[in-house]
């Protein structure tokens, strides 16, 4: 492993994973599960009165496989900078647990199987949209934008925000304004979510020479941006209720969850502690999960 990483003395010694765990790590399973939740909500909100279970299962499986493929490509491309960052130096490639050639083969296999599931068992529009998202994240963001501009996560956020629309097209075979609205929610959520982590790990990004916003514009500027984005997200999250896509249960949940996000961002900006940035990052994950769970619960509560 590259010894340029500054290791915390309290950090536990690295213990090698089993081979299957190393491959699982390449797929970023926690990230994929969150994506699948948003895709599931898209499926349920777009589904006809008789729920198409088989198509939904094939759709989620195909989306999961292609998302895992994109994550593996991200690991492959970022393996050199991952060696320099405390957050990522224990990943399988920096630790030499899997060769780059095997990671590439694994990514191609996952992506190929996932695409086949979608185009054969689901529909062409979902297959091609998922492929476009994979390329957007794994290639456009990881290979170029991440290293080129502090707005990397904003521009490429669209690729990561697509799962709700992919779920929608899985059961409808077409794009719609409602599906794109779900995408907009995740798209607006992504910058404050990731910038909170970047504030916490700013030294990592400086060491790796990655132009994240706190590196190029400073931590205080980034904190202000996070706060403004949480306000924008609160407003965007009102739209499902305002257009009749959701009801009062979702509205109340949205207001509570987004108020919590704004309060975390306010504390990060004006009264931070050493842990505030990471607390904001972690809260944002639960906030998105619960927000989409509220959309789902509201949908089925109103339909009964």
What does this molecule look like?
The structure is a single chain. The chain is globular, with a radius of gyration of 20 Å. The termini are far apart. With 304 residues, it is an all-alpha fold. The model is unreliable at 1-7 (pLDDT under 50). It has helices spanning 19-26, 29-46, 53-77, 79-82, 100-122, 124-148, 152-155, 157-160, 163-172, 177-200, 202-208, 213-216, 219-236, 239-242, 248-270, 276-303. It folds into two domains: 19-160, Tetracycline Repressor, domain 2 (Orthogonal Bundle); 176-304. The protein contains 16 helices and no strands. The longest helix is centred in the C-terminal third of the chain and has 28 residues, at 276-303. It is 75% helix and 0% strand.
| Integer average pLDDT | 92
Overall domain count:
2
Report low-confidence residues grouped into runs of 5 or more: 1-7
> What fraction, in percent, of the residue positions are helical?
over 70%
The secondary-structure element order is HHHHHHHHHHHHHHHH
Question: What's the multimeric state?
Answer: single chain
Number of strands: 0
User: Would you give the CATH topology of the largest domain?
Assistant: Tetracycline Repressor, domain 2
Count helical runs. Answer: 16
Class from secondary-structure proportions:
mainly alpha
Fraction in beta strands: under 5%
Please give the largest β-sheet. none
The CATH architecture of the largest domain is Orthogonal Bundle
In CATH's first tier, which class of the largest domain applies?
Mainly Alpha
